[in-house]
Amino acid sequence: MRPVVEKFPNTLSPGKVVWLLPLLLPPALPADTPPALAAPAGQAAAAAPGKLFRPPPETDEPLPETARVELATLAARQKNLLAQAAAATSTAATDDLRPAFQSLCDDYERLIRKHPRNAALLVAFAQLLNSPALDERHRAAGLLARADALDPAIPLVKNQLGNYLAEEGDPAAAVRFYLDAIALAPGEPLYHLQLALLISAARDDLLKTGAWSRRNLDETFLNAHERAAALRPDDPAIAYRRALAFYDVEHPDWDKALALWRALETRLEKTSRQHQIVRRHIAKVLLNRAAPGDAPAARETLSSITAPELAPKKQELLQTCPTK
User: Fold this and answer.
1) Whole-angstrom distance, CA of residue 280 vs CA of residue 317
2) What are phi and psi of 234, to 5 degrees?
């Protein structure tokens, strides 16, 4: 099964990470969710799905000045070509770029043959191969694995190898790479968010490994959402994801979930559809918590929801709402 690519509006700087969220995600958020060539010499091809060729550790060799200048030139060509490919509006326009992409790949290969033990060079070429314009993800993963063997302290490489393994159906291996990426760059919200999304998508598979208890997995899941939200406090999409997370754990803290939904409510225009969506969640959490007075509060909250498209889900909640 191909992954669902989910984008989070206004969450990441454009171009910061080429591989944003190609994960095996759970089904898309509900409709009412508010607004992600032959192998180079010496490289073994990627193994069967879920497996990754892991070269033995090597020493990262710095590029001489002439090679650094050439890599910078290749990177500039790459940025320009990818921008053109993203802007192409027809198959013919995309096909016109193929010779330029092939030339760029040839030049990367030539430079790698001269300098096969430079991690930055391998990562740059992997980014090109993994772009939607080329979509050579298996080959890109092989280059990233080589780069990781040369320099195991590049968080971007750890994250993208985690993406690859998640997409190939090996969530246990993917989690290890995501945790490594977080350890290397704890201030990057994307890495925390992808860890949380992977756990949500592959919770049963991770539990079957025996390496996680449900309690530990839920704690890691909630902590990842919490950290991502703390790192991007002005991003309502991440705040929304964090509040949703409490529905996915075995023993939700409904008091905390309610506080998060109410905090999010204050950030939205009262006349907006998003505000009504959040109020529906507030009512849902009140009904789940079922403390004294929660049922009347839920009914009152639901009464403020007037958007026609939310009527079916509003009615579902009303039907579960105690009358006394």
Assistant:
1) 9
2) -95, 10
pLDDT tens digits for range 160-187: 999 999 999 999 999 999 999 999 999 9
Structure tokens at 73: 């030139």
Q: Convert the pLDDT of each residue in 107-133 to its tens digit.
A: 999 999 999 999 999 999 999 999 999
Residue whose C-alpha is closest to residue 85's, from 10, 138, 135, 20: 135
pLDDT in tens, 186-245: 999 999 999 999 999 999 999 999 999 999 999 999 999 999 999 999 999 999 999 999
Q: Residue 228: name the closest of 217, 220, 239, 218 by CA.
A: 239
Q: Using the structure block, give the residue that is written with the tokens 């979509």.
A: 135
- The domains of the chain are located at 254-324
3-state secondary structure (DSSP) of residue 15? coil
80-to-60, 88, 104, 133, 214 alpha-carbon distances in Å:
28, 12, 11, 12, 46
For residue 130, give the nearest of 143, 145, 147, 148 by alpha carbon.
143
Exposure string over 176-192, b if 16+ CB within 10 A, otherwise e? bbbbbbbebbeebbbbb
CA dihedral 133, 137, 141, 142 (to 10 degrees): -90
What global pTM score does this model have? 0.80
Rounded CA-CA distance 158/189 in Å is: 15
